[in-house]
Amino acid sequence: MAIFLILAPYGAFTFLMLVTSAEISVLTASAICLATVAVDVARGRSVKVLAAGSAIVFAAIGLYLALINPALGTLGVKLSVDIGIFVISLGSMLLRRPFTLQYALESVPAETAAIPGFLTANYVITGAWTAAALLMAVANLVLLYVPGLPLWSSLAVAFAARNSAIYFTKWYPEYRQIKYGTPPALFPTPAEQD
Q1: Cβ contacts of residue 12 below 8 Å, gap of 6+?
Q2: In the chain, what's the furthest Cα-to-Cα distance?
Q3: Can you give the pTM of this predicted structure?
Q4: Please, which residues have CB within 8 angstroms of residue 78's CB and are 6 or more apart in sequence?
Q5: Whole-number Cα distances in Å, 127 to 23, 39, 109, 115, 122
Q6: Regions in the chain scoring below 70 on pLDDT
Q7: Within 10 A of 71 (CB to CB), how many other CB atoms are there?
Q8: Which of 64, 88, 107, 158 could form a disulfide with 53 if both were Cys (CB 3.0 to 4.6 A apart)?
């Protein structure tokens, strides 16, 4: 469920770009990001760097479209979003707080968070998302400068990159648990999860 809420603004943005204007798409995505921030605050959780940063990116692009350059094309808007997400993701790692760490700390017991390698695992997962954002940006950039390419090629790259990052995010913690071994008490059994 958490991954759905994290990706909801981007899914809404992608869908709305197909059926309405870029301005409405980015402003709606920004509103959804702000709603996820409000849900986190209401539940006593921390404000997530990804959600707040994405809200700013979407709003900035929306304001740019409304006030400066309403003729910015669809590819320019998508490229701007991808670059914004890339900067947020890479910036979180450069600031030594990979954005996935906030989500991980809220979803695992303190004992798990204290395991050596927990922070490293978050860097690796954030790196996967950073690479996915970079691939999506490059695909849109190529499409922008090689107009003969079909639009679906950029969509295919975005779909593959995003889904690979989702899969990796789910797979990598299990892989680390198997490879490095984690005391069983640190992970709840199915009976304990109910």
Answers
A1: 25, 28, 29, 32
A2: 57
A3: 0.85
A4: 17, 136, 140, 154
A5: 30, 26, 23, 20, 8
A6: 1, 182-194
A7: 7
A8: 88
pLDDT at position 151 is 79
C-alpha–C-alpha distance, residues 28 and 67, integer Å: 17
Gyration radius of the chain over CA positions: 18
Task: Burial-class residue 41 by CB neighbours within 10 Å (0-12, 13-18, 19+).
Answer: exposed
How long, in residues, is the chain?
A: 194
pLDDT tens digits, one per residue of 53-105? 999 999 999 999 999 998 888 889 999 999 999 999 999 999 999 999 999 99
Q: How far apart are alpha carbons 78 and 20 in whole angstroms?
A: 14
Query: Element (H or E) spanning 166, and its range?
Result: helix 151-180
